[in-house]
Write a structure and sequence with these properties.
FAD/NAD(P)-binding domain; FAD-dep_OxRdtase; FAD/NAD-bd_sf; alpha/beta; oxidoreductase; oxidoreductase activity; 19 strands; Glycine/D-amino acid oxidase-like deaminating enzyme; 438 residues
Length: 438
């Protein structure tokens, strides 16, 4: 099938989610001259930080370079991890820490899942929240064995409700024999990411949080015990600064930029499918992903009429028109019955990976940060923002597993991921070789 054959006549190079909520500048608010806390980035983490600070009576100003929600927060697949992906890098390797660190990380992942449920209920956010679980397909029999070895740890630490599904029972989870069985994670969910973001944004505005759109941060400097934050629309003095820029971390914070590897993830949405076909693909309504190094993740749309299919068509950003045929091919590898189905939307966004495959919250040269979703951004960035606010307030009830003593960088990396095309080619080869050997 040629690339042009996959596009619907009404194709849009924009997120499908934006049909329900499109990020806009909103009221253009002047950058204030002073603020108790300045938050850089108006994604899940930044808005979550602001909400929790407001709940504690602390004034906060959120600075956003574009429109609130323009970045990854309204571009993801909408999967909400119950901890299965925490500590897994884009290469497929898993975090190797001390038993105490692993327990802390998994406990915090479980808390992140609980927090997002609490926020959705408390703020009455209508975002198609569904706890249908996740099925992670094993790319090879060896991957299946590794999954099986993790089940006990995931259940003990993240309360994930995980269990294995052998290949002969795989069609209970998906209408395909593509994988070698896989793992079900019951404590996993999905939502409409743009509507969830819209709900968070409205919750922040109800609390009087100042949100300045189109105010890119150009420079941050110390001034006594506080900070001066210079933007494209004015300068603000702050007592505390929070960096919540994730996969869009820039030159204003060079030390943090060296710790974040932005990896492009691409997604397509299909046209509406015949009802019987749509119902048959993922019979239990789960989110699906796999154990490939160049992984794919997919689900049905909230109305159960379309497939939302994401993956690393490339490790760097390419146009939606380039990515869509590649993802369409991945999709029809798994579901041959979708050949001929057209693509109505295609888009991309940056996932923020770290060198130790873990999210991080803490302080760098006195600035607070909430960074490094590693592909689990919906719950994780909400949680990291909440924890960052609790640290500023001084009311954290328990240590956060992602507030680790080290946030590693690399001596040869300065924030420009020039190596990703080479890494991507190597991982694609390894995936091909492992599958062929299997």
């Amino acid at each position: 099938m040629s690339g042009g054959d996959v596009f619907h006549r009404d194709f849009k190079p924009a997120p499908y989610w934006w049909e329900a909520f499109t990020p806009t500048p909103g009221p253009i608010v002047d950058v204030p001259r002073t603020s108790r806390v300045v938050i850089v980035g108006a994604g899940y983490a930044g808005i979550s930080t602001a909400i929790e600070l407001a709940n504690a009576g602390i004034e906060a100003t959120v600075l956003e370079a574009r429109e609130p929600g323009w970045g990854a927060s309204t571009r993801s697949g909408g999967a909400v991890s119950g901890g299965v992906n925490v500590g897994k890098s884009f290469s497929g390797r898993t975090f190797q820490g001390t038993p105490e660190q692993i327990t802390g990380v998994l406990n915090s992942a479980a808390d992140a899942f609980s927090l997002i449920e609490t926020i959705i209920e408390r703020e009455k956010i209508d975002c198609f929240w569904e706890k249908r679980g996740r099925f992670v397909g094993a790319w090879t029999p060896a991957h299946y064995a590794k999954q099986a070895a993790r089940v006990e740890t995931l259940n003990a630490g993240a309360k994930s409700g995980s269990y294995m599904v052998p290949r002969e029972r795989q069609r209970e989870e998906m209408a395909s024999d593509y994988y070698y069985g896989g793992m079900v994670v019951e404590r996993s969910a999905k939502l409409h990411p743009a509507l969830y973001y819209k709900g968070l944004l409205e919750a922040a505005r109800r609390r009087g949080v100042t949100i300045c759109s189109q105010a890119p941060v150009e420079r941050i400097t110390r001034q006594g015990s506080g900070w001066v934050v210079q933007t494209g629309r004015g300068t603000v003095e702050a007592g505390d600064v929070v960096i919540a820029t994730n996969g869009y971390t820039g030159d204003a914070t060079p030390k943090l930029k060296r710790r974040i590897i932005p990896v492009a993830s691409h997604i397509i949405a299909t046209e509406e499918l015949p009802p019987d076909l749509a119902q048959s693909l993922i019979p239990k309504g789960r989110t699906l992903s796999d154990t490939r190094r160049v992984l794919c993740y997919y689900r049905m749309s909230p109305d159960n009429k379309r497939v939302i299919f994401g993956g690393r068509a490339r490790f760097t950003a390419v146009t939606p028109e380039t990515a869509a045929p590649i993802l369409h091919g991945f999709m029809t590898d798994r579901f041959p019955q979708l050949k001929g189905t057209k693509v109505t939307h295609a888009w991309n966004g940056n996932v923020a990976f770290t060198f130790d495959a873990l999210p991080h919250t803490g302080r760098e040269d006195g600035m607070h940060y909430a960074l490094g979703c590693n592909g689990s951004g919906v719950a994780m960035m909400t949680y990291l923002g909440y924890q960052t606010a609790r640290r500023i307030v001084g009311g954290a009830n328990q240590p956060c597993g992602f507030e680790l003593p080290e946030f590693p960088d690399h001596p040869l990396y300065f924030g420009n991921p020039w190596f990703l095309p080479v890494v991507g080619g190597y991982y694609r080869f390894r995936d091909w070789y492992d599958r062929r050997a299997a």
